[in-house]
Amino acid sequence: MGFAYDFDWGVLWRQPYGMWLLQGLWLTIKIGFLAWIIAFFLGICVGTLRVTPWRWLRFIAAAYTELFRNIPFLVQLFFWYYAGPMLFGDILGRQINRIMDLNIYVAVIALGLYTASRVAEHLRAGFASISPDQYQAVLSTGLTQYQMYRYVIIPYALRIIMPPLTTEFLTIFKNSSVAMTIGVAELTFQSYKIDAETFHGLEATTGAMAIYLILGLTVVRIMGIVENKFKIPGMIGR
Amino acid sequence: MFDAVTNNIGFLMGGFLVTLELTCFALAGGIILGAIVGLGRISKRKWIYYPVTGYVNFLRNMPLILVIFWFYFVMPIIAGRPLNPFLSAVISFIIFEATYFGEIFRAGYQSISKDLSAAAYSTGMTYGQTARYILVPIAFRRMLPSLITQSIVTFQDTSLAFVIGLQEFVRRTSIVDNMEVRSIQLFGFVAVVFFIFCFISSKISRHFEEKGRKTGLL
């Protein structure tokens, strides 16, 4: 017996399915960008705290990275989405659950918190690649520890770790697909929804793959331009 | 306090077993295929190099969930009958993770210098002996930390088989949560179990990394 399968690539552009994919792409891009803003700034804070002279701050930052790196993102997402509102108690929790598009906000925050731990690790590697002489040179000009990191070391380290940050930026769009599990209608969700409606999941997911590929290539191209603008010749960490 | 967990512990741990099984198959297949993919990535034959590189770069650009779905849709067409979610998940993980393991193997193969094999040959070793006693042990020790790290990632990734209805750890937890609505302790429990496993493994990986650095291997 054969398993006859009638390909119908029309689902990729026939309405409303084609529109669904584009709407999904738009949400994927939005979630990725918003989460990246959280991840970038929080990651810089956590990464810098890991090298401060204060033991307790170092410990908190280390605990943060270990915690977020060693738990699957799916579990984190479920925890924030289902258990998160409960953490605020009964009354406030119920109010939070009434927020429109709560799942999208949770996805952005969860993805941001998760990626921040990865950004922090890259930044730490960046700090380590700057020679100790540099730190001493900065301090000897009379800057305080805070000023040293704020004006010299962090900008310097960020420019060194641009390639791994590019990878993280790509990964954030890929990871945003996990948000479909809490009903966020991003690209992967939409391709699955098309399957539910038409039973042409293979074409829909193949189309989604092509869209992710184009998105990825576009991001790489844009980041290439950014890297060229900010890189310190001879210092970029490949 | 932890009644929702303790009352369903058998059901939950059964799911964890499925997660472990899936991880074992994914790792065994992913590492073997990865070793071959790594060879393809350093091949001088263009008809091997380009397809393998294309495969690696393509899948590394894809979200794993989508890949799991894609195989879930395509496997019945190839096999001519519906596959169970476990088999479908295993196949997608092997093919997906092999691209990541492949890059680790490529780096491992490339880290071996020509001087090393030349030195081995000059002591009178045959090709087989050189590979067996010199090249493989050194490359393996260099790759070990990255292999462990990627294994941790694979272990975490298996949770995504959730989406095709496989009753692994997270799926079973959310089934229990749907009945009991005790999300904090249930998902807290899953998080703790994953954390313990991954934390210990990452410490082991770091141990090998430091050992390699001390002996000048890395």
Please explain how this structure is put together.
The complex is a heterodimer of chains A (238) and B (218). Chain A is an all-alpha fold. Chain A has one domain: MetI-like fold, CATH 1.10.3720. Chain A has 10 helices and no strands. Chain A has helices spanning 17-49, 55-69, 73-83, 90-97, 102-129, 132-140, 145-160, 162-175, 187-198, 201-230. In chain A, helix 5 packs across helix 7 (145-160). The longest helix of chain A is centred in the first third of the chain and has 33 residues, at 17-49. The mean pLDDT of chain A is 87. Chain B is an all-alpha fold and 218 residues long. Chain B has one domain: Orthogonal Bundle (MetI-like fold). Chain B is 82% helix and 0% strand. Chain B contains 9 helices and no strands. Chain B is flat. The model of chain B has no long low-confidence stretch (mean pLDDT 88). The A-B interface holds A 1-3, 5, 66-67, 69-76, 78-79, 82-83, 86-87, 170, 173-178, 180-181, 188, 191-192, 195, 201-202, 205-206, 208-209, 212-213, 216-217 and B 58, 61-66, 69-70, 72-74, 76-77, 79-81, 152, 156-157, 159-160, 162-163, 170, 173-174, 177, 183-184, 186-188, 190-191, 194-195, 198-199, 202.
Salient structural properties:
heterodimer; A: 238 residues; mainly alpha; MetI-like fold; flat; B: 218 residues; 9 helices; 82% helix
